[in-house]
């Protein structure tokens, strides 16, 4: 009996664990950091306490920290990769290899404990591997305490001191950051070039820095800063974020602009810029408020009480409650980069996909929504604000250089293939989904995705499942072919002949990727009629996307058949042209045969 009960308990435990492995969980890391910064040496000392909660079903015996600043040392993976890739990022090239000891970046751990017990660790490039003194059981919490010395590198990529526009400190990826452990295991990715993934938690950061510096960044200022012996101490609070960033400069102006829903927009920029640039930064402020409203409306409400646009970095990069952007830009470019980086507050920050392995979900979805936002905010009024993304993707698809979107962000053969895949093909993924399921369903999908996955780590499957639930259509094929292969879409009009009852049309599928088809027939009198061919494996179709145009839903097309025949019944009118997808939202890699003129 006893054995039986033990067995039963064992089975119950096993089955509950097995269940946990498929149901969602995420780790929690609450950070407290104390930073003493020296602007003379560009060095600082840090003390960090992390209350770490293991919500996984697994017992952890090791943990990993990212030490990103170590990438800025001659011979690092970032340095060597940049010197061996065919199309190096011009901001990096061989600059790291030439850094002197006073110019490199480093994070040197000095002391690490777990619940007060000293820990053994190995610093391996940009990752610290830590053996635990006590295993962390499922559901248990533990306390890590870490002291470190660091040097801010000369600005090379994203972070660093004195960027091209003279901003003193761009402090991004600047602290020992616990690697994320999720249903796919550890993600202790080395810092080679791109993208991040972090643990959700509450943060409290105390920063002491020379009193002449103005500081902006993640988190709400707690109380008034205090000044003692030439240094000002700031305390910042940031609830439920997975990163913390700041920037500082003695010449920063700090403007405040009130956004929708009581969100305070902060702008930090150098007062030493040209008159034109200063004017651009003033005019950026109402545009940023308009962008916030656009994203609130089309994705979901921004849940924090502040967002800061800060001059810094080397282009534009998204962080918690803020962005660092270069500031000496033409007005359109300044608004454009702000639109893109601010959109990341949703597609990357709140909907915190693992950017290293799903780079297209943050860059692509962000590009999609920021293209749409710019179209409205700047009054561009294009019927397809994603045209540039389609052009780039189709170029890549025909170039022989394309790699599937499942490629790790660092493992593209060339930067061009990464850039177009992540930004352009990722945006096309979203825009084209609107073609597949209809625009109304796409809009609902984006909102429901936000409702279900904000403050989590959603995956590609999570997104496509939302689209399936909203549309009632089967879409696994769409994620798989477009998101996991380099199969291309290529349909064409093979033949059009007069028949007894009207006009016989033969269509051909030349590419491997399946798609449903919209066809538009234009008659000599200018009138139009559309035909819709559902894709059989979708088990359904979309509503008529062309208001006021008569639509006929034809038999579905099963993918394996290379050709499809149908008849346009004679109606006394003369056909002028037949066109596949006049919206151009289907990314046909060879569109030349999509239009037949009579
Ligand atoms: Zn981006």
Q: What attributes does this structure have?
A:
binds zinc ion, nine-stranded mixed beta sheet, five-stranded mixed beta sheet, 598 residues, 11 helices, elongated, alpha+beta
Would you mind describing this structure in some detail?
It is built from 11 helices and 32 strands. It is of the alpha+beta class and 598 residues long. The strands form 7 sheets. Strands 1, 2, 4, 5, 8, 14, 16, 17 and 18 form a 9-stranded mixed beta sheet that branches. A 5-stranded mixed beta sheet has the order 20-21-22-24-23. A 5-stranded mixed beta sheet has the order 29-28-27-31-32, with no helix packed on it. It starts with a helix and ends with a strand. Residues 1-21 have low confidence and may be disordered. Residues 340, 344, 363, 366 line the site of zinc ion. Zinc ion is lined by residues 340, 344, 363, 366.
Would you spell out the secondary-structure blueprint of this structure?
Blueprint: H1 2-22, E1 28-38, E2 43-53, E3 60-66, H2 77-84, E4 106-114, E5 117-118, E6 120-124, E7 127-136, E8 141-151, E9 160-161, E10 169-171, E11 177-178, E12 180-182, E13 185-187, E14 201-210, E15 214-217, E16 220-221, E17 226-228, E18 231-241, E19 246-249, E20 252-258, E21 264-270, H3 275-298, E22 306-311, E23 316-319, E24 322-325, H4 331-343, H5 345-350, H6 359-377, H7 387-397, H8 415-437, H9 439-453, H10 460-471, H11 476-484, E25 491-498, E26 502-509, E27 517-523, E28 528-533, E29 550-553, E30 563-569, E31 575-580, E32 595-597
Parallel strand pairs: 1-14, 21-22, 22-24, 28-29
Antiparallel strand pairs: 1-2, 2-8, 3-7, 3-11, 4-5, 4-8, 6-7, 9-10, 10-19, 12-13, 14-18, 15-19, 16-18, 17-18, 20-21, 23-24, 25-26, 26-30, 27-28, 27-31, 31-32
The structure holds zinc ion.
